[in-house]
Task: structure prediction
Amino acid sequence: MNTDKSKEKELLWQSRFSEPFDREALLFSSSVDVDKVLYQEDIRGSIAHVTMLSEEAIIPVEEARLIIEGLEEIEQEISSGALVPDWEDEDIHTVIENRLKEKIGPIAGKMHSGRSRNDQVATDTRLYMKRVVNELGSALKALKHLLVEKAETYRHTIIFGYTHLQRAQPVSAGHYYLAYFNMFQRDTERLDDLYKRVDTSPLGAAAFAGSTLPLNAKRSMELLDFGALFQNSIDAVSDRDIIIEFISTCSIIMMHLSRFCEDLILWSSQEFNYLEISDAFSTGSSIMPQKKNADIAELVRSKTGRVYGDLLSVLTVMKGLPLSYNRDMQEDKPPLFDAAKTTTSSVRIFTKMLAHTKINEERLAKLTGEDLSLATEIAEYLVKKDLPFREAHRITGKIVSHAIESATPLPDIPLETYKNFSELFDKDVYDALKPEASVNAKQSHGSTSFASVDEQIRAAREKLKM
Ligand code: ARG
Result:
């Protein structure tokens, strides 16, 4: 940044002041480095505003044409790198207006008739948000497609289901993937719902009280393709609740990804060895040649904390602000931009990594086949023979402790031994002790049986069509 005094520029609001704005204060308050991201939205908003102004005969058509042509050129200049937004212009709105002044002279000043930077920045932010909400929605959609594919591939693969991180009951891997499908489906619905509120034009609210010029806010709304128009000019420039709502949704998405990552990290460890993340998404160690680390999953997990920080940041900025606009609100943008970028890139890289992850089916078949997690099946076997569940649970507990003491997997315990625990046991108990049979014996709604998983896949495919 150039803080050389010789380059001093006039600020939009300077004329009322007799002393120039302190250089360090300007450097401190300039938002150009952050809000330059909004240049396209800003230009689009200005073109709509100027079009409306000319249609309402607030400015001459010929002048509006000059302004719009100038703005279109400036967009080219910024995107090509010919114009580098200068921090000394205070914010991106001023960068563009000053450049327009250089190009077409004082007529440029007519662009701001009936508008304040307050409704301008609110408009830019909403246009930006519509774009990033859609981008995040598409990234989630790709992830959900992959989850349904995975569910299909692995619907007959039995894995351990855990509670308290202890092996609990065998489940279909398809069932596991579909659990995450449902979480990301709700995230999608949250995004769809908040989009309706984002899709409201604040343009025409001016500073906060409206304008004495005959603005046609409804026309500006249509030109910008907004679905609704603000009702109250104070509200239009004062709230940032949609940003908070969006970052909350990002936080929930990151929380879901982070839990998923935790499973992948754990399950790809040598101790578990349930699955393998391909080399393309793993890293090594600079000192321990044998290492293969799940860094991508770890980074997604840690970026979750960063997005939570973004949420806390905007919540805290907004708390206690008197109505209407306050400069504090400029600090909404770093967390908004960061949350949008971090969440979308996390969903994308996670999807790619998951696509390159394979379940170690042989090992899981062996482990689930001899595991105590089939104990619930024994208890339910006894319940089906009319024993009260509590009694069935007690007897099964004894059998489990026998299995542990004698180091015998449940399917290898002889029938006489089972009979010693309860007369109700018969040789069909061994059918219940196959993990696949155990999974498929589930009859309740939304359970892990293959039939239920198939039904869930069908329902998920329906949702994906929407
Ligand atoms: N850079 C400011 C922001 O992002 C623009 C609005 C400035 N308005 C004002 N009254 N100072 O919020």
Notes: The first helix runs from residue 23 to 29.
